[in-house]
Amino acid sequence: MSTKPTMSPYARHILICNGRYCDPAGKAEALYRKLPALLGEMGNYDNPCRVKRGLTPCLGVCGGGPLMVVYPEGVWYHHIDDALLKRIVEEHLIDGQPVEEAIFHRLG
Ligand code: FES
């Protein structure tokens, strides 16, 4: 049997869609590249409060992008720009208060 991989601790996982239907202007990758600086220590691999992050080609919504979902809450944001991304990091990921006016769906 092969060896199982290990998982370092983390608190949240965010996914940004860079698919062509919701991000036709190609803004998502630039937003994604800003995350390490915005997250600071919350992006560090050995931080148990770490925010894992990833780009994905589709999240099954396909409009209103750039889109981002934050798990485990299952909070979905739409039309993300630089200013909103900064607010999401500071208000939601750091202070625990989602940016209500930019949410279009919640899991459950
Ligand atoms: S292309 Fe972004 S959700 Fe499908």
Give an account of the 3D structure.
The protein has a five-stranded mixed β-sheet with strand order 2-1-3-4-5, covered by helices on one side. Helix content is 23%, strand content 21%. The chain is an alpha+beta fold. The protein has one domain (12-106): Glutaredoxin (3-Layer(aba) Sandwich). Strand 3 and strand 4 form a beta hairpin. The longest helix is centred in the last third of the chain and has 13 residues, at 82-94. Helix 1 (28-39) packs across helix 2. It has helices spanning 28-39, 82-94, and strands at residues 12-17, 51-56, 68-71, 75-77, 103-106. The termini are far apart. The structure holds FE2/S2 (inorganic) cluster. Residues 17, 19, 21-22, 58-62, 65, 67 line the site of FE2/S2 (inorganic) cluster (FES).
List the helices and strands and how they pair.
Elements: E1 12-17, H1 28-39, E2 51-56, E3 68-71, E4 75-77, H2 82-94, E5 103-106
Parallel strand pairs: 1-2
Antiparallel strand pairs: 1-3, 3-4, 4-5
Helix pairs in contact: 1-2
Bound molecules: FE2/S2 (inorganic) cluster.
Distinct helical segment count: 2
Largest sheet: 5 strands, mixed
* Cα distance spanning the termini: 37 Å
**CATH C-level class:** Alpha Beta
Count structural domains.
1
Descriptive keywords:
108 residues, alpha+beta, Glutaredoxin, five-stranded mixed β-sheet, 2 helices, 5 strands, 23% helix, binds FE2/S2 (inorganic) cluster
